[in-house]
Amino acid sequence: MVKISVIVPVYNVENYLKKCIDSIINQTFQDIEIICVNDGSTDNSRKILEEYKNKDSRIKIIDKENGGLSSARNAGMKTAEGEFLSFIDSDDWIDKTMLEKLYKNITGLNSDISICAVHRFDEEKQIIDDSLPYFTLEKFNSSFDNKIFTYKDTKPFIMDVCVMAWNKLYRKSFIDKYSAQFPDGLIFEDGPFFFSLFFKNAKVSIIRDFLYFYRINRTGSIVQKPGENFLDIIDIVNLMLDEIKYLPDFDEIKYEFFQKKADDIIYRYELLPVKLKNKFSKKFKEKSSLLDENLFDFSYICKEMPSTYKNLCIIKDKTSILNFYYRKFVIRLMYKIMQILYTEENIYYFKFRNLKFRLKKRANLYDIWYQNDRIYVVLFMKIKFNFKFEYSKLERK
User: What is the mean pLDDT of the segment spanning 132-149?
Assistant: First the structure.
């Protein structure tokens, strides 16, 4: 049996593919198979794969119709024969010692998942950015070195554990035990896959070496193109929540989960073009498990996460931030008017900051009253007008 199966999904990456494949075939750890899943590429990617296959017998090519990253990874897993699995995205590349170091770590500690640190390579600026602890593993203090741990040991920063598929080595028997799969047809797919293993009390270990190079700001990348597939984030969060809501310690982590995943949803919503925001809002309101009052106390969320709560309300109510504040202003104004109308019959009171005003009603000059959701005004006994004022609806809120 081969030790490691490296699964590389490939779709229209002719400008990056050679660098990726070169970094894999030149690994210091050679007992590997390289499963390249051509996901319906329409550029020269398939031709490049064939060239490499003719040079290296460890390379296998699977051709399939385009089905997305999840579908390609799942197809690769079906044919993988290795004791361990590694996923490398075809626009990224790896350090020549990555597989060797991860293999020694996972076998030496007998863990189920081994994780390494990640360099983010900015394609536009052509620089490496190591500013995010999520990728640098800075959240893990020295007590995590050279030992195995489970999700229970990471509760103080549990949503800062990197869920990405590609900076890890997985024990295949552990994946098979739980029939873990990437969610077919969805983007943002890494979270549900990782959660389906991590929260099964997977034994995890880390390496602090930067062994994976993750290319960001790449032209043509799916996650760089806000479109209708960004609605997938709602399904993804639901799937992740399904993996943790039955845990005995769910209450300990649920609000950190809520905060992080609500931020993910808000971020994707803000990136969408205006024409898709209503569709996103409708799906969020109808399907998002983050709105489940049986799981989350929204009075607590409103108090402890006011900004997040406000932005989720904006999405749910299909309104822009400008409209949100406009509506808030109108409601406050309606309350103020009703305070005026419900005071003494012939006197109106006004307050502006610390200043108070008292206005005596003069029938020969003006009159104002409220009836059947309308405000009636008479000025100088001649000019009359009225306008809709639905205070009855306001009273029911």
Answer: 96
Does pTM surpass 0.85? no
Q: Which of 364, 371, 368 lies closest to 385 in space, CA to CA? A: 368
pLDDT of 171 strictly over 70: yes
pLDDT at 384: 73
Cβ proximity of 206 and 92 under 8 Å: no
pLDDT in tens, 54-108: 999 999 999 999 999 999 999 999 999 999 999 999 999 999 999 999 999 999 9
- Looking at domain 4-219, its CATH class is alpha beta
Distance between CA atoms of residues 128 and 126, nearest Å: 7
| Contact residues for 109 (Cβ-Cβ < 8 A; gap 6+) | 146, 147, 148, 203, 205
Cα distance between residue 122 and residue 118, in whole Å: 13
H helix or E strand, kind and range, residue 29: none
- DSSP letter string over 106-119? HHHTT-SEEEEEEE
Closest CA to 77 of 175, 151, 201, 161: 175
Rounded CA separation 143/162 (Å): 18
Task: Give the 3-state secondary structure percentages of the chain, helix then strand then coil, rounded to 5.
Answer: 45, 20, 35
Could you tell me the two tokens for 357? 């005003």
Q: Is 368 helix (H, G, I), strand (E, B) or coil?
A: strand
- The structural domains of the chain, with segments of one domain joined by +, span 4-219, 229-319, 325-395
Q: Six-digit token pair at 380? A: 């100088």
Reduced to 3 states (helix: H, G, I; strand: E, B; else coil), residue 321 is helix
Place of tokens 């993996």: 243
- Residue 17: Cβ within 10 Å count: 24
Q: Chain centroid to CA 298: how far?
A: 20
pLDDT digits (tens, 9 = 90+) for 93-110: 999 999 999 999 999 999
Which residues, listed in sequence order, are joined to residue 149 by a DSSP beta bridge?
A: 204
70 φψ region: left (φ > 0), alpha (ψ -120 to 50), beta (else) = alpha
Least confident of 29-33, 238-242, 368-372: 368-372
Residue 395's pLDDT is 44
Q: Strands, E, within 187-288: which ranges?
A: 204-216
Strands 127-129 and 113-122: antiparallel
**Contact yes or no for 59/84 (Cβ under 8 A):** no
Locus of tokens 């760089």 = 224
Tell me the H-state helices in 245-273: 250-271
